[in-house]
Amino acid sequence: MFYDYLIVRDLQLAADLLKETHVQTQGRDGYTQVDLPPDTLFEAATAIAAAQNIWQSIGWSNLLVEIPATQLMLPVITQLIGERINVNATLVFSPSVYEQIFDSYLRGLERLMRQGESVNEVVCFVSVAIGRLDAVIAPFIANSEISFGVMQAKLLYQHYRNLCRSERWRSLPGRAKPLRLVWDCTDVSPESAWRYLQALVVPETVMLLSPLTLERYREVSLLLTSFTDGESAETHLASVLQGIALDEWIDQLLSEEMARSLNAFDRLLEAIDQKRRC
Fold this sequence. Notes:
The protein is of the alpha/beta class. It is built from eleven helices and six strands. Helix content is 56%, strand content 10%. A six-stranded parallel beta sheet has the order 1-2-3-4-5-6. Helix 2 links the parallel strand 1 and strand 2. Helix 3 runs parallel beside helix 4, helix 5 packs across helix 6 and helix 6 packs across helix 10.
């Protein structure tokens, strides 16, 4: 498929450009990422095979394979981590799902340890689509100035810190890489992104921006946020979400995002096919 040729070539070029950063940060940063074809994400076996194929085709260690955080894909994350394939778990909207990914990540690392292999050279990130959360929940919150996405991010960061202090995590070798959070703001306008830039510049996290937003705020200096008020955010959320079936809305949002990804991929293949015919 011509798509396969294009994506492999582009990813190799991107990974090559970021390789110096990857080496200088000892594998902490400098990654490029790829979506798996959405039609491979409805069965664990097909997702694993697709991830293995793209990983081997690219041949660079600073690649992240995006895996949606559905229940079906949690064992896939464990399998890929156990094969030293880096993962970015996407479509994460709640602390409970973050904890499930943490468990899947650790299972993969523990598998490597049982095999006598190093856990230092594999990584997993967790992406949270902050803008999508706000778009779905904001109409149900009386005070429109409240960002549900930011409050949920505070809870997620609190879970991140707690899990990094857990006995299970501390039992790993000291150079194992933590399950860092990625605030995905690529689907919001530069104007809307500003509220997240002000609130979500938090240590040990990553901000994912669109090229337009990055260019807009490239010269802006931002102050680190402490996020020490996770418990107050939980209390605040409980008060503003009264009567809202949050889990149901999150499940619906996940289904919508999966469907949107499948439709976008189909349109991409059609566009490539039309270009080839011209």
